[in-house]
Specification:
Glucose Oxidase, domain 1, Rossmann fold, 20 helices, alpha/beta, 4-stranded parallel sheet, 8-stranded mixed sheet, 14 strands, about 35% helix, single chain, about 15% strand
Length: about 575
């Protein structure tokens, strides 16, 4: 037994009334004496829900993790937390990420747990659970649920997410019928697991492995591959050893670990959503991380992985090619290789024997698919606190562009007018979408990559510059400027853009500029008034009153930092 007293013994170790209370009610489940006599107690934080299809298999995975915990001498207790289905919830799961993190944090702190296993999958279930766990700071390991198998449609592979963004074009230009769409619908998501391209779910799984919070190679294994079950069982064993070694999150999540995650995100062509989630996680664990760090650290990193939406393959192919360990090995001294990971070894020790089996999927560092792939951070009078763009998924010819603004004040405005034949727009214009930031929607939805106007799609136009204070799905592509901060709904400069204004985008020089004189902008600002609040009660009111801007991670200001694992007071 560990020399340090286990936290769970504060509940179970007492000889008086409270020890009796804490033990006796659990005994109705048939637990033997040794469950309460100094064995490490492991909480299995399960984001399973039938309303979260990407996590639908995690109920079974919890049982596999429990097996590993028991084998290592621990005691497993599974508990449910708020789950979020990206494809189901309205208005956006991002509205509820912080709520879920509160659930996780308080569930861990309030219960007799010595260590935690996070079962994750769909986009927000990974950052939310990790944010909550960071604010308690116990030994913690992540078991990613894994991607779906490749979608297969009429002989071709299709991405379960990326195909979504092709539907309007296929309907308008390829005669894609209702019957075609129905057939594709059952082919795109054909197994358990999360999106099978390098969308946000895969990016988050990649992120936690790069941070050192999963066992080596865990992130890319398909959900239905038996090796994923092995990884879950071994993770159950390992968390018990982590408790004995007191290997807490704060010992792993150093500044160097966060820098590694930024570099790896660039190398795999990961989602822009990593910016907002990684920043929030850093805020919880107490590591200083700024928006500019993503550009300084990651923007010059080469693209090594040929996956949708930046490339052509899918996560199943990535795993067969060798997975993330190959990328971590290829990156070499671009990473801090001596950082500690959950298995007690360094990043270098974990991946030094990694081998690549398909160079069409994973390139060498000397011959990358693209020389620079990281997220670029833009500044200018239109985004004083910053905005982001993903060059690897954008059109090179549009990376320096000057165009006339076509403004939509809200998503409702966009849906009402975008396909109006009389809309004054051409391919040189810049689509401007307002009111979709953290406070504006509320919740900052993934709508930044709005579909192009029907009349331009029929002309063969495939991309245009689009800017907003919202996010976009990691499965999406296009020349899309996102996360504009401050957002329009609190009076950021985006709120002042009018139809006909000219906007200048220069990604190479990190510039986003509204070509309107300061005097005119000041007049517009004086006439601007904020929109009415979206809610007067409940969680949404709490969110609106406390949510931070995108450049700060869109966490609630009252949640930044950590309260630790100590609980004062008892129930009697």
């Amino acid at each position: 037994m560990n020399e340090k007293k286990l936290r769970s013994q504060e509940w179970f170790g007492g000889a008086g009334k409270m020890g009796f209370v804490h033990r006796s009610w659990l005994r109705n489940q048939g637990y033997p004496d040794d469950y309460f006599r100094g064995r490490p107690v492991i909480g299995i934080c399960n984001t399973w829900s039938e309303l979260t299809p990407c996590n639908g298999h995690l109920r079974d995975f919890a049982e596999i993790v429990k097996k590993g915990v028991l084998e290592a001498g621990g005691v497993p207790f599974e508990f449910p937390v708020f789950s979020m289905g990206e494809t189901i919830m309205r208005p956006t799961t991002m509205l509820f990420r912080n709520l879920a993190s509160m659930d996780v944090e308080e569930s861990i702190r309030a219960n007799p747990l010595d260590g935690v296993v996070l079962l994750t999958g769909c986009d927000k279930t990974t950052p939310s659970t990790l944010m909550g766990a960071c604010s308690v700071d116990l030994p913690t390991i992540v078991v990613p649920g894994g991607p779906m198998l490749n979608g297969r449609f009429r002989g071709d592979c299709i991405g379960s997410g990326s195909f979504t963004w092709m539907i309007k074009t296929k309907q308008k230009t390829e005669g894609f019928s209702v019957e075609d769409l129905a057939e594709a619908e059952v082919c795109a998501a054909r197994s358990s697991g999360h999106c099978n391209n390098m969308g946000t779910a895969s990016t988050m799984a990649t992120m936690v492995e790069a941070l050192g919070l999963t066992l080596p190679g865990a992130s890319a294994i398909p959900a239905v591959d038996s090796r994923k079950k092995v990884m879950a069982q071994l993770s159950g064993r390992r968390i018990v050893e982590m408790v004995k070694a007191d290997l807490r999150l704060s010992k792993i999540l150093t500044r160097q670990a966060f820098e590694n995650a930024i570099v790896v995100n660039a190398a795999v062509g990961g989602s822009t959503n990593q910016v907002i989630h990684l920043t929030a996680i850093a805020g919880r664990i107490g590591v200083e991380l700024h928006l500019d760090d993503f550009d300084k650290i990651g923007s010059k990193i080469p693209l090594l992985v040929n996956l949708m939406p930046s490339g052509k393959f899918l996560m199943e192919d990535f795993f067969y090619a060798g997975g993330l360990p190959v990328v971590l090995k290829e990156l070499g001294d671009r990473l801090h290789q001596n950082v500690i990971t959950v298995n007690g070894k360094t990043l270098q020790e974990n991946n030094e024997r990694a081998a690549c089996y398909n160079r069409e999927v994973i390139a060498t560092i000397d011959k990358p698919f693209k020389p620079e792939a990281g997220i670029a951070v833009l500044k200018g009078n239109l985004c004083e606190n910053g905005a982001v763009i993903k060059p690897s998924a954008a059109t090179p010819a549009l990376m320096k562009h000057r165009g006339r603004a076509v403004v939509f004040e809200s998503m409702e405005d966009y849906h009402e007018r975008i396909d109006d034949p009389g809309l004054d727009i051409d391919e040189s214009c810049v689509i401007v979408l307002k009111g979709v930031g953290p406070k504006g929607y509320p919740g900052m939805p993934e709508v930044g990559n709005v579909d192009l106007p029907e009349k331009l799609i029929l002309k063969g136009v495939k991309d245009m510059v689009r800017i907003s204070d919202g996010r976009m799905s990691g499965t999406a592509y296009g020349t899309v400027v996102l996360h504009i901060s401050p957002e329009s709904s609190i009076g950021g400069a985006l709120a002042l853009v009018r139809n006909g204004d000219f906007i200048e985008l220069d990604v190479a020089n990190r510039k986003l500029h509204l070509a309107v004189p300061d005097e005119e902008l000041n007049r517009r600002r004086a006439a601007w008034s904020p929109p009415a609040p979206h809610a007067s009660r409940g969680y949404v009111r709490l969110y609106l009153e406390h949510v931070q801007q995108a450049d700060q991670g869109a966490d609630l200001d009252i949640l930044v930092g950590k309260s630790g694992a100590e609980v004062k007071g008892d129930l009697h």
